[in-house]
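Box 3.1 — From sequence to structure: DUF3883 domain-containing protein
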Amino acid sequence: MSPDTPRREWSRREVELLVADYLQMLTMELTGQAYNKSARRKALLPLLEGRTEASIEFKRRNVSAVMNELGLPRIRGYLPADNVQSEMLLDVIAEQLQLQPDLELAAEAAVDRPATVAEKTDFGHAQCEPPRRQLRTGESAPAYRRRPFRRDYLEREARNRTLGRAGEEFIVDYERWRLLRLGLGQLADKVDHVAKTYGDGLGYDVLSFEADGQHRYIEVKTTAFSEETPFFVTSNELRFAREALTQFKLCRVFDFRAAPRFFELAGPIEQHFYLDPATYKASLQ
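Predicted structure (token representation):
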């Protein structure tokens, strides 16, 4: 719910102004240009109908939620807040994207860029706590919605094999570093990048070890964007995580091109994430 009191729905004109500003900031972020969120927020205030700075911030989070749903990058720092006026936001974003071709070019460049592992990484600060789980609130999604976009950029990033492999190698290096720090050089030597050695069908990417020698089965998901960016999992990965239980670790690597970090979650994937079916395999009955 918006922080405005009493609560007032945003007019279409207000939404158009806010979305245009959001997409301009996103384009600048994707192309590495500096911008000032606070200054842009203050510039919006006189153009809106008695809104507060807090309400602008919250509405930007509503935009982030729709951007996630559409498979588009979002502005760092604006956690998605579902789903207030999502239908209007969807329509306005579709219209505004036609007016901002630079964003499409920037998004394509961001998700398609090849990636390599950094030569020097401070592994002592690489792991962080996972983000707090966000409760889903607001309007329920319609049973069927036509998506007005030609590309799902987050899915496209997931198909960037150089980024995926680089993220896996980052975790391989981290696991070896972790075991060496524990004085377990023999186990460190046995860490195996199984996705590279045997292929992608095992349900995990890296075989590592706990201090007592127990196996750690690590699935790595890598993004150049923020830690809350949605990602894709296969049915095989879901099944393996359920079978391996706490020996299965999902490592979400984020901010890969800037300063790669990761968080780790153990056990079945659906214990930690909402799973939305994106595609189905159909066979004749």
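Summary of the box: Residues 1-6, 137-144 have pLDDT under 50 and may be disordered.
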